Amino acid sequence: MQCVKALLFDVFGTVVDWRGSLIDELTAFGAAHGVDADWTGLADAWRGAYVPSMERVRRGELPWTNLDALHRAALERLVAASGIRGLGAAELDQLTHAWHRLRPWPDSVPGLTRLKTRHVIATLSNGNVALLVNMAKHAGLPWDMVCAAELFRHYKPDPETYLGAARLLGLAPGEVMMVAAHNADLHAARSCGLKTAFLPRPAEYGPHQVADFTADSDWTVVAADIGDLAQRMGA
Amino acid sequence: MQCVKALLFDVFGTVVDWRGSLIDELTAFGAAHGVDADWTGLADAWRGAYVPSMERVRRGELPWTNLDALHRAALERLVAASGIRGLGAAELDQLTHAWHRLRPWPDSVPGLTRLKTRHVIATLSNGNVALLVNMAKHAGLPWDMVCAAELFRHYKPDPETYLGAARLLGLAPGEVMMVAAHNADLHAARSCGLKTAFLPRPAEYGPHQVADFTADSDWTVVAADIGDLAQRMGA
């Protein structure tokens, strides 16, 4: 691990609690606008649209489309399907930007702040740059660099993302460690030659969580959370 | 100026003192290795190679080549032409990385830290990402995002750089302000619709400075330094 110069973090689920944040913001929006709906169900369905939307881009069925645009299109579809009425373009934009305001898990900011003293810390997320920059401002995430799928016009787990981030940082793949709460992300990173760190986020999907409770392979590091990762990395 | 959401900073000369830093590092290298040479002249010639090297890329005579690689090639040529002997690949690499260790002007870190409280602050530099990330770590520059020519495969003043940075930040050109100590950079940014801020760095080129002592147009803001810019932006 001495050779690890930079850590790349998956963001949704690994660093921030997208589900709790979305449920809170959607529920508050409903209360403020007097719109009664299953906001928790909408949050889960919205996240459920994420992988299929990206897959359409990855398969070439859609031209390159960033995550804000995929989120916006999915929300419009889901709102219509749920029979929620009275949301115009401004409201849909406002709700789409809820993804820019997700809150970090309690260990994220202190853990990243420790890691930053000895390593380059960057995102490697399927979120777009504006989303990740706004989120970092809002949540106080102290990134040295924001790497996003958008920079490579490829979504994870395409190898262009992991290798592209290492190249931008001027590092060999083996000098970079991917950190994620999702085993599949780490399998893809390892196949590109990156080091890997797993940390579980068993509450990510709330009652719907079915996977990623534990490491499913011998990752370079398995940590309890980002603070524990900092400890293990000597920060 | 209420509509300015993000400030993009030129880096070499505007934020960091490349000349003083390079002269110090080259001179210290010469002393440590017992190599006698005109290190100040080498620093100036090295920077002198910057624009012609980028122009070859901009004209398509060279395929996309990042600034580290352009710096490395120019150094090798200049060292040979100067008759400096005994520098192998490792030493040339070490000296090329002097550009990753440039020191900020005294007002840069406090001014950026103030601006960051109310605005997104990012680089928009012809330096490559690794150079800018390592420099930020070394110098304590608190960027929210590192935008680099490399992300767009175009060097400034190509419009793809200014417009590409605004697009990545999810902003209209008029919501972004380019900050530079070089009038030419601001002319190009303004022609893309960006706001502009000039601040003079009359010591940038030492005794060789011939331009950019003052603003040559009615830029959106003309400031004394980055601290004064923060003041004028209400930070």
Distance between the termini of chain A: 12 Å
Compute the number of helices of chain A. 11
At the fourth level of CATH, the homologous superfamily of the largest domain in chain A is HAD superfamily/HAD-like
What fraction strand of chain A? Answer: 5-15%
Helix content of chain A: 40-55%
Structural class of chain A: alpha/beta
Q: Order of strands in the sheet with the most strands of chain A?
A: 3-2-1-4-5-6
Domain unit count of chain A: 2
Give the topology, please:
The structure is a homodimer of 235-residue chains.
Chain A: E1 6-9, H1 18-33, H2 39-48, H3 50-58, H4 67-81, H5 89-96, H6 108-116, E2 120-125, H7 129-139, E3 145-148, H8 149-152, H9 159-168, E4 176-180, H10 183-191, E5 195-198, E6 221-222, H11 226-232
Parallel strand pairs in A: 1-2, 1-4, 2-3, 4-5, 5-6
Helix pairs in contact in A: 1-2, 4-5, 6-11
